[in-house]
């Protein structure tokens, strides 16, 4: 029986560097080949891991030993690559968001189903240690019925980000283009939180009223968005996010996502989780805030690769399904539509 899953990396830009590290660190996986249309990118990553590189997807797909195609290209290229890979019986792990349209997501899901391969979306924050802890608290009912969900972040993305990401590894034009990226800060960044909150709470957004705009970025994607939403248990949520807020928040203030229950609350900050219970829960007394320091909020990639590789080896579906990816995309697209039409948009979206 095979002990390791061999990955073909498609797109060798900024995030592929992190994923390659995770694949090679995980005992269930190895990198088999890397591909990019930009030879410098492909060669650089290949040299780091002593693996071959190529310039076309076809060359990856014809490699019989490759089990998984990991797609880390600009968003509009996720769907064609995933469908092609599934057609060649390769399992697919695609970067978030699953795609830029629901139609594309459906075509990807159909292709994977037809081929009998796994299709998953990269949401590493599900694999943070603290995610387990928060989920346990929610599942135990320790904060009671959830009635409020507040999330969002104010960040600052300098001009260089839009053409070269955080590291400037490669100059590209896709981040500023709505056609190529599908959206700005909400789809690009908050899609992680949307997925995480779905996972933590089991709740789905049923309607959304959003406002968004592009105030200070040479882009046709939004750099500011706020929205309120209703969840399927009746809870009410709010999100506010932007990429133009230089200085973020003043030093004494803490930014974070907040789960508000009838019996307590959870405040998820960058490196700390705060909990407040109205009744004693485990070792926590009631009526006071408890501060729980947590590790690197940007981690989770190794856990994600391990889980996906184990699923492939066991012939089971991975924990994060393509439908999860579709659902978080749907919430983003509903917000965009709401902002465009000035109306409340209900989910599921019909088209
Ligand atoms: N950068 C991050 O911090 C980050 C974090 C999490 C997820 N992601 C996601 O990862 C994906 C890639 O983002 P990135 O930041 O690495 O982008 P990037 O622009 O740094 O890299 C994209 C790479 O894809 C290559 N590419 C373009 N067309 C291709 C094709 N047809 N075949 C193969 N390669 C092709 C480009 O040459 C480039 O090297 C996106 O879905 C993004 O949302 C990025």
Instruction: Determine the CATH topology of the largest domain.
Output: Dihydrodipicolinate Reductase, domain 2
Which structural class do you get from the secondary structure elements? alpha/beta
Low-confidence stretches: none
Q: What is the assembly state of the chains in this entry?
A: single chain
How can the largest sheet be summarized?
A: 9 strands, mixed
| Order of the strands making up the biggest sheet | 14-13-12-11-7-10-9-8-15
The CATH architecture of the largest domain can be given as: 2-Layer Sandwich
The tally of domains stands at: 2
Rg is 20 Å
Share in helix: 25-40%
- The average pLDDT is 96
CATH homologous superfamily designation of the largest domain: Dihydrodipicolinate Reductase, domain 2
Q: How many strand segments?
A: 15
- CATH secondary-structure class of the largest domain: Alpha Beta
| Approximate shape | globular
**Series of H and E elements:** EHEHEHEHEHEHEHHHEEEEEEEHHE
The small molecules bound here are: nicotinamide-adenine-dinucleotide
Beta content: 15-25%
Query: What is the straight-line distance between the termini?
Result: 44 Å
Structural notes for this entry:
With about 350 residues, the protein is an alpha/beta fold. The chain has 2 domains: about 5-125 and about 300-320, Rossmann fold; about 125-295 and about 330-345, Dihydrodipicolinate Reductase, domain 2. About 35% of the residues lie in helices and about 25% in strands. The protein has 11 helices and 15 strands. The strands form 2 sheets. It has a 9-stranded mixed beta sheet with strand order 14-13-12-11-7-10-9-8-15. A 6-stranded parallel beta sheet has the order 3-2-1-4-5-6, sandwiched between helices. Helix 4 (about 80-85) packs parallel to helix 5 (about 100-115), helix 5 (about 100-115) packs antiparallel against helix 11 (about 320-340) and helix 9 (about 185-200) crosses helix 11. The structure holds nicotinamide-adenine-dinucleotide. Nicotinamide-adenine-dinucleotide binds near residues 15, 36 and 170.
